[in-house]
Q: What sequence folds into this?
């Protein structure tokens, strides 16, 4: 294995976030810690049963990327590139000077260029084939997320997109860590992005019954683990982590923000949308991550839960956490603030877990005032809970029965 092995520690040296909570890591942490919800009534969703979303305010692709990039890239790629640039700068890497052949890119996504497809479908309906842009396919394709990011930062190593629905970001980070351990790469840009808040996509989610109908109080609609939860608020966003082997990071004098100590994955193999009511799949994934990290369940001090605010997910996941961690670590869900950014959720939440470790502080689960009586979990509500937080778990569950979990620790 080229001198590398399964036990080699992999660290996070850079973070980048572009979410409804703000542009950049510092703004995200400020708003997540304050528990200030980003949900709002969305005029673009008028006529749909659920008319709420969490959008990224103040994102100007022309200003941040230039007019040509803004024109030829779908929003899900734009926000990923901005997040990647922030993460690389944070890690102290200059893509103009590194050996790009040793740099991999692993990013998660589910729905591709949804906005592009919506526009081009309308153009086709109005003008026929000649009205469709020749950029339609490269702007829509899921794999172009990793492809365009690699072009932007000159990363010529392994390049792929993970698609495990709402577990995609967590899957990407775990896959990236394994590439580093195998010796295939020296640096991996890992994370996920999603920007699919179109009328068509939101209508599909609404028709499934997955979305909150709290249209009268948007800011309170996403309330994970609350007894009155009625669905999630759809969101967009991107989270990127720069991963390296610890000894390589140390050799170049880089700051290690956290260790990606363990990764586990599983599939319920039961139902396309509903989680296994016995929570066997997510428990299997978490146990695998703990075993991979060589960490006892009793050592976990914080869980950043998937916590979607849907009736089925939260009770299933909550009961899994009860059985896995009876000692009561601090649990939260940051979806009360940013909503549910679908495939990007796991990557964004992994970044938030890293920040919780760094700050010894667990942000509150916004809007949750009456925890589901079926759940005996130590849920952080109302205000942030101070640590210590040296060992954390981040969990993700996705349609198709996909489950993934990370164990993150202090360096």
A:
């Amino acid at each position: 294995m080229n001198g590398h092995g399964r036990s080699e520690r992999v660290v996070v040296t850079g973070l980048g976030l572009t979410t409804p909570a703000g542009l950049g890591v510092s703004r995200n942490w400020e708003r997540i810690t304050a528990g200030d919800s980003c949900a709002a009534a969305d005029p673009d969703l008028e006529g749909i049963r659920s008319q709420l979303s969490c959008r990224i305010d103040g994102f100007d692709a022309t200003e941040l990327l230039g007019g040509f990039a803004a024109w030829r890239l779908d929003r899900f790629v734009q926000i990923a590139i901005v997040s990647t640039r922030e993460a690389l700068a944070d890690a102290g890497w200059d893509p103009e000077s590194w050996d790009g052949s040793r740099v991999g890119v692993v990013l998660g996504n589910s729905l591709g260029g949804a906005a592009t497809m919506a526009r081009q479908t309308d153009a086709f309906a109005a003008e026929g084939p000649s009205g469709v842009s020749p950029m339609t396919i490269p702007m829509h394709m899921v794999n172009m997320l990793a492809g365009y990011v690699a072009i932007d930062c000159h990363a010529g190593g392994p390049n792929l997109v993970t698609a495990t629905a709402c577990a995609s970001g967590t899957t990407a980070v775990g896959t990236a860590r394994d590439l580093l351990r195998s010796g295939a790469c020296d640096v991996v840009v890992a994370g996920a992005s999603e920007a699919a808040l179109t009328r068509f996509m939101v209508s599909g989610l609404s028709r499934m019954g997955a979305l909150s109908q709290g249209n009268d109080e948007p800011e309170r609609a996403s309330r994970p683990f609350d007894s009155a939860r009625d669905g999630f608020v759809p969101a967009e966003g991107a989270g990127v982590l720069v991963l390296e082997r610890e000894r390589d990071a140390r050799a170049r004098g880089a700051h290690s923000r956290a260790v990606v100590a363990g990764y586990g994955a599983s599939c319920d193999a039961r139902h396309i949308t509903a989680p296994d009511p016995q929570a066997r799949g997510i428990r299997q994934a978490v146990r695998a991550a703990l075993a991979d990290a060589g960490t006892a369940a009793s050592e976990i001090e914080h869980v950043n839960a998937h916590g979607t605010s849907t009736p089925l997910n939260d009770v299933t996941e909550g009961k899994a956490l009860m059985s896995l961690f009876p000692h009561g670590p601090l649990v939260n869900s940051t979806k009360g603030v940013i909503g549910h950014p679908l495939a990007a959720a796991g990557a964004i939440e992994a970044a938030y877990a890293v920040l919780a470790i760094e700050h010894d502080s667990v942000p509150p689960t916004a809007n949750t005032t009456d925890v589901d009586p079926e759940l005996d979990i130590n849920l952080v509500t109302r205000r942030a809970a101070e640590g210590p937080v040296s060992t954390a778990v981040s969990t993700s569950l996705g349609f198709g029965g996909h489950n993934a979990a990370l164990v993150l620790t202090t360096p």
Notes: The domain at 263-409 is CATH 3.40.47.10 (Peroxisomal Thiolase; Chain A, domain 1). The chain has a mean pLDDT of 96. The longest helix spans residues 75-91.
